[in-house]
Design goal:
Elements: E1 7-8, E2 15-17, E3 23-27, E4 47-53, E5 62-66, E6 95-99, E7 122-140, E8 151-156, E9 161-165, E10 174-178, E11 185-192, E12 197-205, E13 605-607, E14 613-620, E15 624-627, E16 635-644, E17 656-663, E18 666-673, E19 679-680, E20 685-689, E21 704-715, E22 718-729, H1 742-745, E23 747-755, E24 761-767, E25 769-770, E26 774-777
Parallel strand pairs: 14-24
Antiparallel strand pairs: 1-2, 2-3, 3-12, 4-7, 5-6, 7-10, 7-11, 7-12, 8-9, 8-11, 13-14, 14-16, 15-16, 15-26, 16-22, 17-18, 17-23, 19-20, 20-21, 21-22, 23-24, 25-26
């Protein structure tokens, strides 16, 4: 517990009595277990909690996170460790409050198994049934840079909203935010743009804090002239005004209309006055009960307190009322109509008597011990459930359920009976003796596997596989059929499977190959005079022309079929990540590709590496940061941008996504997220995270993409996709302190690629700002 100039008086949370007349409340979550889902019941009286998660489908719940991280941080999230290495993080916080990424509880102990905070952020709101003031709060791990910063909204009781901004101290940071002029508030909204946590909320009830706030007559209350709502007590009993301490008063007696006493209290049983609705007063426990009603007896046809039924007043169990004025029930030791037994086994009765006083029976649709299943397969239940409500087990020497045999061959049973108690069958995807293959070609298997799960055999009388005839002539079969079940090429007869005969090598037709097929471009054989086969137009090598000669197609200076454009030789290719023309500029950072500076709205088409037309599209709303770190930590790069793009122009689950940073020295950051690494949260939202990229060591010596999100949406009437990335690695190539001129190196080009044929390139070429620990690109740098 951190030292404070206050006195600990504690309950479920620590309550501290401040030096002022007001009672301060410190909400620090220390009495709760890690992974506990916090509700109103866990908070001080009059304080409620409401949570909103920014990620669709994720839980809107706040949970406790153990920031001491003994044995390692849950969720692998060392950013929340306290004390830590971040700015201001020098104090152990113990339990802190986060927005839950998930609430998975496999063990069923009521606690989240692997507590971690929601990377897309959300809102934690504390509500008050009476106005409170926020004095201070501890905030941890406010690191993200986005369009909307993380902040605190104070919803004042006067109907306004005050915003409190945090210092952007960065990863694993901690800070105590002190509210300089606290106002009475109805709610506190902690808004997180991404990750973050809170702890040690110091709040005070507005009434009773020694300050007369707007709407208060007096402060603090003294019980005589100032009430608990800080209003002056001016009334008296009988003035038709319900004053503090009064239960009712004349026309203002809604608590007991028309029954208010002269002392401004409501009638009550036991006040020595016989009021309407009472049989007697006060109760004596013999003839008058605690509700001021006469104590009756069982059998007087009156349903008295403690009776379930009584004669004609036995609506609870008509005609079944016991002599003791109670209704029949299972377990009362009497066998009543509808019961098969009594008492049940759970009360020491017969072992086959259930808690519903019915006998255990196989097939009654209830799995009663010692049954393993119910109903059996014979009654339409589980095919593995036997008629005695036991589960069928392969190897129990009974053919049950969907078994075909039992026990299996491995247990000395029937030959061919598998360990699943199934008989071998051709086409079951298992090669069982005497099968030679499985499944057959007719089921999409080996093209040489026949429907008997046997491999083709020349001479078996069946023309199969690559056979042309069967059986061969040597076995009394087809005349001319060779021992390999094919006709002889070169016998001067054109037979099945031959285009010509004899071949050119034997003096036959020109272009007739040695296998008696005609030579042609695209037949899959590189024939004399051909350099390649088949050509690109038939699905072959892109460098194989339609005349079966080799040569580059895209970039050969000729507009070939299927090309939209032809890449000029020795010019910049604008989407391959290479400085092709050696002018120190890469792709859309090269004037040959990007629009000229004097007209940034001019977006010319360029010819990409696949001879298709594409564009360099500007990245909008592009705040970014490069932060250098000392070993043993990686540098990191963070960016948030948007690129105009048609809906679903590319699917990050199907194609690679690449980002590059370059200055006059060339590329100093180049990271690719391979196709399939992104996970779809919705049809338009994708997410990627690799926690190992953050750790400098054998598992991640060079860092990489730590987390990324991508969302396709419509912004200001234009289809686009936004992206948020965090990358770790060594980015010292962008540091002017290491090499080059500051003015030159500050001009950095950001390039993003959706790596698919014809995809456009997003880029931003801007002068960054040098800081003590790295580089920043602010929104203000992009204005205009």
């Amino acid at each position: 517990m951190r030292a404070r100039a206050t006195l600990l008086i504690s309950s479920a949370f620590a309550l501290l009595l401040a030096a002022s007349p007001a009672r301060a409340i410190i909400v620090d979550f220390e009495s709760l277990a890690a992974g506990h889902i916090v509700t109103d019941a866990d908070l001080p009286d009059g304080v409620g909690i409401v949570v909103v998660n920014n990620t669709p489908g994720h839980p809107s719940s706040a949970i406790t996170f153990d920031s001491s991280c003994v044995g390692g941080c849950t969720g692998g999230d060392g950013d929340l460790r306290t004390p830590g290495t971040g700015p201001g993080n020098d104090t152990a916080q113990g339990n802190i409050l986060i927005i839950a990424e998930d609430v998975v509880d496999v063990g069923g102990d009521g606690l989240v198994d692997d507590p971690d905070d929601e990377q897309n952020g959300g809102v934690i709101s504390f509500t008050f049934d009476r106005p409170h003031k926020l004095l201070s709060v501890r905030v941890i791990d406010i690191e993200e840079m986005g369009e909307f910063p993380s902040l605190l909204e104070i919803v004042t009781s006067a109907g306004g909203t005050e915003l409190v901004f945090y210092e952007e101290l960065g990863n694993n940071s901690a800070q105590t935010v002190v509210v300089p002029d606290p106002k009475p508030a109805d709610a506190l909204n902690f808004v997180f743009e991404s990750t973050g946590a809170i702890d040690d909320l110091e709040i005070v009830l507005a009434c009773g804090d020694g300050v007369i706030d707007p709407g208060e007559d007096c402060d603090p209350p003294n019980g005589t002239t100032c009430d608990d709502s800080c209003m002056e007590i001016t009334g008296e009993c009988g003035n038709d005004v319900l004053d503090p301490g009064e239960e009712c008063d004349g026309i203002d007696d809604a608590a007991c209309p028309g029954l208010c006493r002269d002392s401004c209290v409501c009638p009550v049983c036991g006040d020595d006055i016989l009021d309407p609705g009472e049989d007697c007063d006060p109760p004596d426990g013999v003839t008058c009960d605690d509700s001021c009603m006469f104590i009756g007896v069982c059998g007087d046809d009156i349903l008295d307190p403690g009776e379930e039924c009584d004669g004609t007043a036995d609506a609870a169990c008509p005609g079944l009322c016991r002599d003791t004025c109670v209704c029949p029930g299972c377990g009362d030791g009497m066998l009543d109509p509808g019961e098969e037994c009594d008492p049940p086994a759970s009360q020491g009765g017969a072992a086959d008597c259930t808690d519903q006083c019915t006998l255990i029976e196989c097939g009654d649709s209830v799995v009663d011990p010692p049954e393993e299943c119910d109903p059996p397969a014979s009654q339409g239940g589980d095919v593995k459930c036997n008629d005695d409500c036991t589960l069928a087990v392969c190897g129990d020497e009974e053919i049950e359920g969907d078994e075909e045999c039992d026990p299996p061959e491995s247990q000395g049973g029937m030959m061919g009976c598998s360990d699943e108690c199934m008989l071998p069958e051709c086409g079951d995807s298992v090669v069982d003796p005497p099968e030679e293959c499985d499944p057959p070609a007719s089921q999409g298997g080996d093209p040489n596997c026949n429907d008997q799960c046997m491999l083709p055999l020349c001479g078996d009388g069946i023309v199969e596989g690559d056979e042309i005839c069967d059986p061969p002539e040597s076995m009394g079969g087809v005349v001319g059929c060779q021992d390999d079940c094919r006709f002889e090429c070169g016998n001067d007869a054109i037979e099945d499977g031959e285009d010509c005969d004899p071949p050119e090598s034997q003096g036959g037709e020109e272009g007739c190959n040695d296998d008696c097929t005609l030579a042609e471009c695209g037949d899959g054989v590189v024939d004399p005079g051909e350099e390649c086969d088949p050509p690109a137009v038939l699905g072959g090598d892109d460098n194989c022309h339609a005349d079966c000669t080799i040569g580059d197609i895209c970039g050969n200076g000729v507009l070939n079929p299927g090309e939209e454009c032809e890449q000029p030789i020795d010019s910049e290719i604008c989407d391959n990540g290479i400085d092709d023309d050696f002018d120190t500029f890469i792709d859309c950072g090269d004037p040959d590709c990007a629009p000229p500076d004097e007209d940034p709205n001019d977006l010319p088409l360029f010819c990409d590496g696949t001879c298709r037309e594409s564009q360099c599209l500007p990245i909008k709303r592009d705040p970014a940061i490069i932060r250098f770190a000392d070993l043993p930590k990686h540098d990191f790069f963070s960016i948030h941008g948007r690129v105009d793009s048609p809906p679903n122009a590319f699917d990050p689950r199907q194609v690679d996504f690449r980002i590059m940073l370059a200055n006059v020295n060339g590329s100093f950051l180049d990271v690719t997220v391979p196709a399939g690494a992104f996970q779809a949260r919705t049809q338009k939202l994708y997410f990627f995270k690799d926690k190992s990229a953050k750790q400098l060591g054998a598992d991640s010596p060079s860092g990489g993409m730590f987390k990324a999100s991508m969302r396709f949406r419509r912004v200001l009437g234009t289809d686009s996709y936004t992206f948020k990335l965090r990358i770790y690695g060594d980015f010292s190539g962008g540091d002017p302190a290491l090499s080059g001129d500051v003015a030159e190196l500050s001009l950095i080009t950001t390039l993003v690629y959706g790596v698919s044929p014809g995809s456009s390139v997003g880029f931003l070429k801007a002068n960054w700002n040098r800081t003590r620990r790295g580089w920043t690109l602010r929104l203000s740098d992009l204005a205009g």
